[in-house]
Design brief:
Strand order of the largest sheet of chain A: 1-4-5-13-14
Low-confidence stretches of chain A: none
Mean pLDDT of chain A: 96
Number of strands of chain A: 14
Helix content of chain A: 40-55%
CATH architecture of the largest domain in chain A: 3-Layer(aba) Sandwich
Oligomer: homodimer
Distance between the termini of chain A: 48 Å
Largest sheet of chain A: 5 strands, mixed
Chain lengths: 442, 442
């Protein structure tokens, strides 16, 4: 069957065979199918989607387009975690040491960020000396020795995704649930772990703006994982306000340390507690979520999680002293408080707006080749439902440019809506999606 | 607005502005917009369509991408005609001399054929010496002198359509009503006549398979014409069986001559009569279709239409003797009768199948660079509703290759369905679509 016929079939919503899907994925990766046919195909997928079976085959073909990582030398059930991305989403950095300290091999491969702040890899590079470009051999050795590591995702995985993603970006086919699901899952599966926990963010600061889309994405990813023999569980969590208190890079490292010390944002902790318990369950350490959550709390309380973070930093060449002296992290020249302009209750926070403000200060990049300013960012200690008094400091802006600082101060208050009558916070964890089905949690 | 944003807007079914449409058409023609963005845009149009206003602007932008023809030196209201293409669709060749003989400047620019048989230009090239590559200046002079000419469409018209059509062909975006309508109408309008008569074929031998699609296409084209100040009328006519009796090139010239002599297929004549009457009405020669039809019949009866064909052949350098001695046209080596295998009534004819059989014999081309065999083809004197007797000859196959002739004889009878009980022919003319609306005619 010719490529035009495959496009035609998808355009009319007909089921594609395994051979047809492989033809299009391998043909495109090999350069036999030109961009203009692939973009027409992707637009047809945008309109007609892919069913469960097509999507599993499509994802498998993407994985098979390149190398995969063999983690079989690591003992135990290896677990990975992925977030669909949000603002003040400081989950991974404390989560990996917590889980590792409890005996689950936490094999985390992360990316750099595009957009409002850096990715986990950028944030970790705030730690002087911390190496993220580590060979798979060394990665395996570290995880076997101390149970956890966070490294930069190999560029050799899933070349099909790289090529397809670059094309989607310029043809308005990014926002397609099957294409997002296959892009994420192909990389997670190629990375070689046995189980995967997914954190699908929903709300004004997330890619998925509504619960329905988030549920569809979570379901698609869980189905792909299960079809390709990876035990996969997804949580849909709130992103209608920043999750933690810090938005930036080094200041998110500080909040990660706070969490490991039993402090930090309560909402951020609750997401870490749930995802951590799930990773412990998938890793075979506990049977129930309740046991898992109790262990997470214990690991923080007895200091073993913080100790594990120290070990990970050391194993990856970083200066572990930052844990006890955060002034060793990159520091911004200017710090200025954000002062509440009126009294009342916070009713709405424009999370994406805050993320963009952090990017404006230099904390994020628009293009891959831009350099991030690791020291700048925003910090807020108020969330939706909180009371504020006129004149009260509700946060801090960290900047290296006085003009940008002033502009940020002018823009920031428009991103908070304060009302006179008491308000309540949005739910935090909406759904758990697993092979057993969808469980409502709010 | 960036091209990605324009694709996004169309993808969500939002109305594009004039500036956005011009950006995409001119940007693509100039090479500033790459194929992969245009193909994503075209696929979004396939799904979301274009409204009347967008389509008129899109067509105008396509016209403005290249040169247009100035026919102002021709006196009178100039009328053109276009058919969406079918099998045994021998309308243009007799129609132009009929209309010209009655005083309407019939300025016909035709294309070569792709598919089952040649186009009008290929068919005319069966006439020894006939020139179709004629300059606009000479074309204007001929029409001013004898009121009619049929020339090959200039390659300089509507470069945007050439580029877009080539891309549609390889990205499964050919079968989109707004894209078909704008492709046809941009060329017709750029060709410079004042009025246009469209023949939209519907049925198993046509591009449009159902009445609903044909009506949509006709309406879209009439709306474009009216929006761009061309008086446009479309007829939807039947293509559930070959229209005329001859399928090929030189044998269609013979049927054209038959029609001008008052013979030939009755159904073919009726379509010519209707389209001719409409051209006379649009050309201001008559006020009503009835008067127009009477004049068409008169022009045939008194021989003036045949005389006009002679003049046109002579003006374009052809040998007018072919009118009286058709053996001067290319002749096939083998002729063999098709014999009815059973008695009964013809219930169904696979018109597209017959077209493909003619192509198999050499009468049509698959690729632009293939050479057509002008002498071969098929001839049938039976239509749906006709009675046939077992053993009776119902047609003839003309071939230059004995093996192909035998295979064609084997395949041909499967394309006719003969039943025992009497059948009736399908309607011939379904609708007339004009600025006044849709008129049902069956």
């Amino acid at each position: 069957m010719s490529i035009v016929d495959i496009i035609e079939k998808k355009k009319y919503g007909n089921h594609l065979t395994e051979e047809e899907i492989k033809n299009i994925v391998f043909g495109y990766t090999d350069g036999k199918i030109p961009d203009y046919q692939m973009s027409a195909f992707l637009m047809a997928v945008w309109f007609k989607g892919m069913d469960e079976n097509e999507l599993a085959i499509f994802t498998k073909a993407m994985i098979d387009s390149g190398k995969t990582i063999d983690l079989s030398r690591i003992e135990g059930i290896k677990v990975d975690k992925h977030s669909s991305g949000g603002v003040a989403d400081t989950v991974t950095i404390p989560l990996i040491p917590i889980v590792a300290s409890l005996g689950v091999p936490a094999c985390k491969m992360s990316g750099r960020g595009l957009g409002h702040t850096g990715g986990t890899i950028d944030k970790l590079e705030s730690i002087p000396g911390f190496r993220t470009e580590i060979s798979i051999e060394e990665f395996v050795n570290i995880v076997n020795r101390i149970k956890g590591a966070i490294i930069s995702q190999s560029n050799e995985l899933v070349p099909a995704d790289k090529k397809i993603y670059a094309l989607r970006d310029v043809t308005s086919t990014v926002d397609s649930i099957p294409l997002i699901a296959s892009s994420i899952m192909s990389k997670k599966i190629a990375a070689g772990t046995d189980a995967i926990v997914l954190d699908v963010k929903v709300g004004n600061g997330a890619f998925m703006q509504d619960l329905d889309s988030a549920l569809k994405l979570a379901t698609a990813m869980v189905n792909i994982g299960q079809s390709l023999n990876r035990n996969t569980v997804a949580y849909i969590t709130d992103m209608n306000q920043p999750l933690g208190n810090a938005i930036g890079n080094s200041i998110e490292i500080i909040e990660a340390i706070d969490i490991l010390k039993g402090n930090g944002s309560q909402r951020l902790f609750e997401v870490i507690e749930t995802l951590g318990a799930e990773m412990l369950r998938l890793g075979g350490v506990v049977d129930t979520m309740e046991e898992g959550k109790a262990l997470v709390k214990k690991a923080i309380k007895d200091g073993s999680a913080l100790k594990k973070f120290e070990e990970i930093i050391e194993a990856q060449g970083g200066n572990k002293e930052i844990i006890y002296n955060t002034s060793l992290l990159p520091q911004a020249k200017f710090k200025k408080d954000v002062i509440a302009a009126q009294s009342g209750y916070i009713n709405r926070i424009d999370a994406k707006g805050l993320g963009k403000l952090a990017q404006f200060l230099g904390a994020g990049r628009e293009r891959k080749d831009e350099v991030i300013d690791l020291s700048v960012g925003l910090f807020f200690n108020k969330k939706i439902g909180d009371k504020v008094e006129k004149g009260e400091p509700i946060g801090t802006i960290l900047a290296n440019d006085a003009t940008k600082l002033e502009e940020a101060l002018n823009r920031v208050m428009k991103l908070f809506e304060v009302v006179e009558t008491p308000t309540s916070p949005p739910p935090l964890i909406y759904y758990r999606v697993s092979k057993e089905g969808v469980q409502k949690l709010f």
